[in-house]
């Protein structure tokens, strides 16, 4: 049976359906962190080139999302959290998603290279490849380390923004990468604690499925400790500043406290209150990165204005 046959004829694809393929909520984080990475860099891009750079990074991130949805359509159809996505709901064909993903990937990489430098374009190409092929096609279905290693795909945008401005990688860009990379496992494992049945049904070897919730809880706490160290370290570099450092210390103290509470929970207590603590930790983790990168941006603005050194 072809994609055209599978497509629900009662739901002719609209612009919003194609836009949903690009994972706009994820793209928001990609755009914001890439923008911050570019603005905290010691080299200033012309505003027009900076706008173009962020636009093409966003398009590249959306392209990776479309390729992910194309490959994961079978899994998405099973999981409650993703069953209403454009392909499993029958609004867009897998063939269209693949075509859009490939076309946008090529466009974004070439245009970013032309607008800024080919190091940034190459890094964007590698990011798309890593998310679509290394994570989606290999890691996600083969190992409980899927989120740990695969988190690199979402961690590249601030580094790409930095490289777009400077043409090279530095400690600051690596630490911004590490902030997102180390945040990803506790963020998704917290979700997996109260959404385990979805991963069971889809056959995805999330840590909660392969090693159980108790092990997952310990891993969340361990990764949170390492994350906190790298988050504070970033504040001691030229990219950081007083606003970021205070913000990082406060946010990570709270994050560690939440991870410690999760670590000590037993399943009876968690089921009794419908995973209230885990859901609270997950919701806070959604704000965690935006607040960190927002603080970096604030310091950059104050530094430009001469308020801080």
TrEMBL record:
It is an enzyme of class 2 (transferase). The chain crosses the membrane at residues 26-42, 48-71, 92-112, 118-135, 147-168, 174-194, 220-236, 281-302. Its EC number is 2.5.1.141. One of its GO terms (molecular function) is protoheme IX farnesyltransferase activity. Its main location: membrane. It is a multi-pass membrane protein. GO terms for cellular component: plasma membrane. One of its GO terms (biological process) is heme O biosynthetic process. Keywords: Cell membrane, Heme biosynthesis, Membrane, Transferase, Transmembrane, Transmembrane helix. Converts heme B (protoheme IX) to heme O by substitution of the vinyl group on carbon 2 of heme B porphyrin ring with a hydroxyethyl farnesyl side group. Belongs to the UbiA prenyltransferase family. Protoheme IX farnesyltransferase subfamily. Carbon 2 of the heme B porphyrin ring is defined according to the Fischer nomenclature. Interacts with CtaA. This is Protoheme IX farnesyltransferase. It comes from Palleronia marisminoris.
């Amino acid at each position: 049976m072809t994609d055209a046959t599978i497509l629900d004829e009662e739901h002719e694809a609209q612009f919003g359906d194609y836009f949903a393929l690009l994972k706009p909520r994820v793209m928001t984080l990609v755009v914001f962190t890439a923008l911050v990475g570019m603005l905290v860099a010691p080299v200033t891009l012309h505003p027009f080139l900076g706008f173009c750079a962020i636009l093409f990074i966003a398009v590249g991130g959306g392209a990776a999302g479309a390729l992910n949805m194309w490959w994961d359509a079978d899994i998405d159809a099973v999981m409650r959290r993703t069953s209403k996505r454009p392909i499993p709901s029958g609004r867009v064909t897998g063939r269209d998603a693949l075509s859009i993903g490939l076309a946008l990937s090529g466009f974004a990489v070439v245009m970013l290279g032309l607008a800024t430098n080919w190091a940034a374009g190459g890094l964007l190409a590698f990011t798309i490849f890593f998310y679509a092929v290394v994570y989606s096609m290999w890691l996600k279905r083969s190992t409980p380390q899927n989120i740990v290693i695969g988190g690199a795909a979402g961690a590249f945008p601030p580094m790409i923004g930095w490289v777009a401005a400077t043409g090279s990688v530095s400690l600051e860009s690596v630490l911004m990468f590490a902030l997102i990379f180390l945040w990803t496992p506790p963020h998704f494992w917290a979700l997996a604690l109260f959404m385990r049945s979805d991963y069971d049904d889809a056959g995805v070897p999330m840590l909660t499925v392969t090693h159980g919730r108790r092990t997952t809880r310990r891993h969340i706490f361990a990764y949170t400790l390492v994350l906190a160290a790298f988050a504070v370290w970033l504040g001691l570099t030229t990219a950081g500043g007083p606003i970021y450092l205070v913000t990082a210390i406060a946010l990570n103290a709270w994050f560690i406290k939440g991870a410690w509470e999760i670590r000590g929970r037993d399943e009876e207590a968690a089921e009794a209150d419908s995973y209230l603590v885990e859901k609270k930790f997950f919701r806070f983790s959604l704000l965690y990165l935006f607040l960190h990168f927002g603080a970096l941006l604030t310091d950059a603005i104050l530094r430009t204005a001469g308020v801080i050194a």
